[in-house]
Design a protein that fits this description.
alpha/beta, 7-stranded parallel β-sheet, 10 strands, metal-binding, 5-methyltetrahydropteroyltriglutamate-homocysteine S-methyltransferase activity, zinc ion binding, UROD/MetE-like_sf, zinc
Length: about 350
């Protein structure tokens, strides 16, 4: 892991090329079930094509100056569906309908019809491929157990808590394998804790801690208000309804969306034991921010978090953005972090 202050990273995803995926189809939905029609290549060529696109994503991050890279989540249709639908006990072929996180649409989700268990590795090849193709610190992401429990229809367990704990065990088994494969950091994506804070307060911390049991590399929990392409900035709240509670998790870092919703960073005082992965890139803005604009956002974070605890990052995953814009934003962020780093000395 980087030893300098203000190391830069990404939340996870990077734009998938048009030759690999149908971006028009992808733009309409954040899929919970598999979306096989999204891929433009036949099955016999898909893995090679995904490998090539992953190398492009890694190289873009490196060229931009990112210190802690990911594989861009190029092989995924969404941040969560590939892992969730690979587990025993999940029926993704006969979906149920639930209210989407935005609260205004019905979305098809997998049904839980039996004990949720991990059949075998899901992202292991992704991590091995990433490790072979970069010398930089490498982070891999997994969907969080609470979020997966909210993105499925429970038709087997007595309640959602029991379901979340089953997901947590599956995530933990995967995370342990990813750690052995060379992951320098492991991140859980848990955006749904904000969507259902009352339920989250009952068992989200317990589920997160179970998912991270035995993980000794740095760990992150990511929260956001939704992809900018799907959830407009005008609808995003200015504060998190479930945040301070995450100080009780065993995670080392908490990742939050702050740039687009213009988050009041005073909330960070409630996370005094954690490093903060601070969103300083507004992914709802089609313009590439200036270095000075991003530097000001980093400086604002430093009013509340010491430099050794702050990790600049985009607000969220970048998969819905044009690639040239995503690269430009990452470059501006890395240059801004270097500028503030020099100021601090």
């Amino acid at each position: 892991m980087p030893t300098h202050i203000l190391p830069t990273t990404v939340v996870g995803s990077y734009p998938q090329p048009e030759w690999l995926v149908n971006r028009a189809m992808l733009s309409k939905v954040v899929p919970r079930n598999r979306l096989h029609d999204m891929w433009r290549l036949p099955a016999e060529h898909l893995e090679e094509a995904q490998d090539d696109a992953t190398i492009v994503a890694i190289r873009d991050m490196e060229r931009a100056g990112i210190d802690i890279v990911t594989d861009g989540e190029i092989r995924r249709e969404s941040y969560s569906n590939r892992f969730a639908t690979a587990l025993d006990g999940i029926d993704g072929d006969n979906p149920a309908m639930i209210v989407a996180r935005t609260g205004n649409t019905q979305t098809p989700v997998p049904r839980v019809v039996g004990p949720v268990k991990r059949k075998g590795p899901v992202e292991l090849h992704d991590m091995q491929f990433l490790r072979k193709n970069t010398d930089r610190a490498a982070k891999i992401t997994l969907p969080g157990p609470f979020t997966m429990s909210q993105q499925a229809k429970n038709e087997f367990y007595k309640d959602d808590e029991e379901l979340a704990m089953a997901f947590a065990e599956a995530v933990n088994a995967e995370a342990l394998d990813l750690q052995k494969a060379g992951a320098d950091a492991i991140q859980l994506d848990e955006p749904w804790v904000r969507n259902n804070p009352d339920l989250a307060k009952r068992y989200a911390v317990k589920a997160i801690n179970r998912a991270l049991k035995g993980i000794t590399v740095p760990t992150v929990v990511h929260l956001c208000f939704g992809y900018a392409a799907v959830v407009p900035g005008s609808t995003k709240p200015a504060s998190y309804s479930f945040l301070a509670e995450l100080d009780d998790t065993t995670a080392d870092q908490i990742s939050i969306e702050a740039a687009q919703p213009k988050l009041d960073l005073g909330v960070l005082k409630d996370l005094s034991s954690k490093k903060i992965m601070l969103g300083v890139l507004d992914l709802g803005d089609p313009e590439i921010e200036s270095v000075d604009t991003v530097a000001d956002r980093i400086r604002n974070g430093l009013k509340y978090v010491s430099a050794d605890r702050l990790v600049p990052a985009p607000d969220c995953g970048m998969k819905y953005m044009p690639r040239a814009i995503a690269f430009g934003k990452l470059k501006a962020m890395c240059d801004a972090a270097a500028k503030v780093r020099r100021e601090i000395g």
